[in-house]
Amino acid sequence: MPTQRNVISSFALLTALLLVAPSQAQTLDFGKDVWPIFEERCIECHGPDEQEEQLRFDDTEWLTEEELTGAGDITESLIYRLIADPEAEADRMPGEGDPLTREQIVLIRLWLEGGGKAEGWVPPELLPGHGRGASEPSAVTVLAEGLTAAPEKALAALIAKGALAMPIAQDNSLLRVDFARAENGVGDGDLALLAPVSDHVTWLNLAGSTVTDAGLSAVAKLPKLTRIHLEHTKIGDAGLAHLSNLEHLEYLNLYDTEVGDDGLEHLKPLTHLRKLYLLDSNCTEEGARALEEAIPGLEVTLLIEFAPVEIEVAPDEEENSDEEDDDN
Ligand code: HEC
Is 139-301 in CATH node 3.30.1360.120? Predict the structure, then answer.
C-alpha cells in the first residue's frame, strides 16, 4: 500500500484540527464567525486599498470562488492551503505578521467544509464612498484632514474592553472601533469609552450588543461617523432619533432590529446615506421606498437577496448541455 507521504504530511494538521467540535459547523455564521478573520488579517492586502494577486475579499463573489474555497472539498481549497498547510510555509497567508491562530483556522475550515458560501450575508463595503468616481475624495479623506492620531490611552481602554480600535488606513487617523467580538458583551455604559475619541471615530460596530435606544445618545456625539453597524440589537424607533444629526453617515445596518417605518423619519436628514439594511426589522416596503425617495442615491435593502443559487440539472435530462459550447 503506498504511503502517500506528501499528502499525509500536508494534511496532518488538518486531521489534528478535526478534533475540535465539528458540531460548530451547524451554527457557524459567516458574518459573525468567519468574516471578522478575513477582515482583520486579509483585507489590508486583499481589499479596497490593495488587491494583491487581484484578490479582493470584501467582495464575497471573489471570496467564494470555487478555486479559493474548494467548494466543500478542503483539500482543493487554496485559501485553506495557504493558511494551514505546513508545506505551504513559503506562501503562507497572511503575507505578514503571525499565522492565523488555531481557532481562526478551525473556523475557516468549518466554513469551507460547509461549502464556503456567504449567501444572504451583507458585505460590509469597507470603504465609505465605495463606488464614487475616483477623482472625488471620499468622506473619510476629507474628515481626516488636519486630524492628529487618536490618544493612545483612549485606544488602550477600548482594546482592554475587547474592541478592535485602529486607524482606518495607514495614512488616515480616523478610527474604526469594532465591538463585535468583545467577549463580555458591550452595553450602554461602555460607550463612554468613545468620548475621548469622539472626533476620530468614523466606523463603529455595535452589532449584537445590548446597546439600547437611550444608549445611542453617546453615538450622537460622534460627528464624523460614516458607518455604523447596529444589526442584531434591540434598537427601535426612538434610538434612531439619536442618529439624525450624523450628517456624514453613509452606511447604516439595522438588520434584525425593532426599527419600524416611524423610526425611518429620523433618518431623512441624512443626505449622504447610501446603504441602509432593514432586513428582519419591522419596516415595510412602503416605508423603505419613501425613504429612498427622500434621500437621492440611497439604496435600502429590505429583503435578503440571496447570491445566485446553484441550479442542479437533473442527471437524466440536459447533462453537460451547458459546458459544451464553452470551447471556442
Ligand atoms: C501583507 C499583505 C498580505 C496579507 C495580510 C494577506 N495577503 Fe494574501 N497575498 C499577498 C501577496 C503579496 C500575494 C501574492 C502572492 C504571494 O506573494 O504569495 C498574495 C496572494 C494570495 C492568494 C493567491 C495565491 C495564489 O497562489 O494565487 C490568496 C488565495 C491569498 N493571498 C489569501 C490570503 C488570505 C486568506 C489572507 C488572510 C488570512 C491573506 N491572503 C492576507 C499579500 C497578503
Answer: no
